[in-house]
Structures are given as structure tokens and as C-alpha cells.
Specification:
The structure holds two protein chains of two kinds. By secondary structure, chain A is mainly alpha-helical. Helix content of chain A is about 75%, strand content about 0%. Classes of the chains: A mainly alpha, B mainly alpha.
Chain lengths: ~160, ~100
């Protein structure tokens, strides 16, 4: 049952990801991206990493997709039907990504991965503890990065008089 | 029972779709959307291998958490840049950006 759910969610993620890069309208692309992210969050839940699944829904679908849709709507006038949305290297890009996919696939299939028995969930308490003990330095650097991003976004986005 | 190779293939599909989008989109927002796809493929692999090798302190999940935060930061800066450029040049197509070229 769980296995069936994993297969269907995974195939859904693949289909939505391909749709999100293939559709013409950039707004539709953002909507397909949000469905892809939802499927990936479902995969996190099935891998017994529920904290990451919740974070994925909160930060990506709640935050980033909203930002994308704002930006798309603010720059909407150039999205009309007559303007090409892709450049003139579609064929060679398709070839490159398919070749790379075949390469990855051959690398994956070469190893006997077996099946992962249902793993026990890592408690959120331990995750938080290792975040604040072993990985303290990157955590603090991350807050520095977020501060820099906040300042930078305000400075760049400010309307100059 | 979790089919490991299937999840790796899903991640590979997401990655290659992202690469295709980055290479072909003219719209900068489309390129940012494709970059999010690539980062999600990496995250899926990190969480999967964290579970596969059974790490005790959740290193893979913490890495994925950092990637989520940095992706959010990156897309915020990218979208602000897009809006600033749109305000100046009324276009967000990559082949129209020749501001820094001479």
C-alpha cells in the first residue's frame, strides 16, 4: 500500500516537473512547480522525514511560489501569446538533458540498491539538538546569509528617486 | 518497503527537467523555477541517502534544510533583481540583457 503510494507520488512528481518546464505560459509553469513540490513533500513523508515535508510545504509552496506568482504578475505585460518563451536551442538542450538522464540512469541501475525497510523516524528533538551542537557554525552562517539577503533585497528593490 | 532505485530515478528526472528548463527558457522567472527543480532533486537524494545509510544525527536532513533556506534566499534575491531590471528596461528576457556587455 505504502509502496503503491510512493510509486504514484513519484510518477506524479516526474510528470508535473516535465510539465512545468514544457508549458508555454510562465504562470502555469509556477502552478505545476507547486504541484511538483507537493509531490516531493509527500515523498519526504514516505521516507519518514516529516519535519522536512512540513518545511517543504511551508517554505516552498507557502513562500517561494507566492513570490514567484507575485513577480510573474508584476511583469505580466510581456507574457502575451506572440512572444517566444524559449530560445533557439530547444533541440540541443533536449538532447543534452536526455543524454545526461540516460547517463544517470545507467549509473543508478548499475548498483544493486535493494529495498529500504521502513526506517524509524528521527525524532525532531535529536534533529534540533544536532543542529545546535554539531552543526552550530553553518546554522549561524545561515542566519547571517538571511540577514544579508533581507538587506540586499530591500536595497535592490527600492525605487530610486 | 521503499524502492530506493525508483526514488533515485525520480530525482534524476527532476534534475534533467530542471537542466532543460534552465537551458531553454528566455524568461528569467522560468529559469529560477527550473533552478528550484534542480535543488529539489538534490534534496530528495540527500534525504533518501540519509535514510538509506541510517545516519544517527540526521546530517542529510540538516543539509536538505540548509538547501531549502538558501534556495529561498536565492530566489528572493533573483526575483528582486528581476523586478529591478523590469523597472528599468521593461523586459525580463535573457537575450535582452546587454546592460553589462559592451
Amino acid at each position: 500500500m505504502v509502496e503503491f503510494a510512493i510509486y504514484s507520488i513519484g510518477i506524479g512528481a516526474c510528470v508535473f516537473a516535465i510539465l512545468s518546464v514544457a508549458v508555454r505560459d510562465i504562470f502555469h509553469s509556477a502552478v505545476w512547480l507547486s504541484l511538483t513540490l507537493l509531490c516531493v513533500s509527500g515523498l519526504y513523508f514516505s521516507l519518514n522525514a516529516p519535519f522536512l515535508g512540513v518545511i517543504q510545504v511551508l517554505v516552498y509552496i507557502g513562500g517561494i511560489i507566492t513570490l514567484f506568482i507575485f513577480a510573474i504578475k508584476l511583469t505580466a505585460r510581456i507574457g502575451d501569446k506572440t512572444i517566444a518563451q524559449t530560445n533557439n536551442q530547444v533541440l540541443i538542450s533536449l538532447l543534452a538533458s536526455v543524454v545526461f538522464f540516460v547517463f544517470l540512469l545507467s549509473a543508478i541501475l548499475r548498483h544493486p540498491w535493494g529495498r529500504l525497510a521502513t526506517v524509524k523516524e528521527l525524532p525532531l528533538k535529536e534533529l534540533g539538538q544536532s543542529l545546535l551542537t554539531n552543526y552550530m557554525l553553518p546554522f549561524e552562517f545561515l542566519s547571517l546569509i538571511l540577514l544579508a539577503v533581507m538587506v540586499g533585497a530591500i536595497v535592490i528593490g527600492k525605487v530610486k528617486k | 518497503m521503499i524502492p530506493v532505485h525508483f526514488l533515485l530515478e525520480v530525482s534524476a528526472v527532476l534534475f534533467c527537467a530542471g537542466i532543460y528548463g534552465v537551458l531553454t527558457r528566455r524568461n528569467v522567472i522560468g529559469i529560477l523555477i527550473s533552478i528550484e527543480l534542480i535543488l529539489n532533486a538534490a534534496n530528495l537524494n540527500l534525504v533518501l541517502f540519509d535514510r538509506y545509510w541510517g545516519s544517527t544525527d540526521g546530517l542529510g536532513q540538516i543539509f536538505a534544510l540548509f538547501i531549502v533556506a538558501i534556495a529561498a534566499a536565492g530566489s528572493v534575491v533573483g526575483l528582486v533583481l528581476v523586478i529591478a531590471i523590469y523597472r528599468n528596461g521593461k523586459s525580463i528576457f535573457t537575450d535582452k540583457f546587454n546592460l553589462l556587455k559592451w
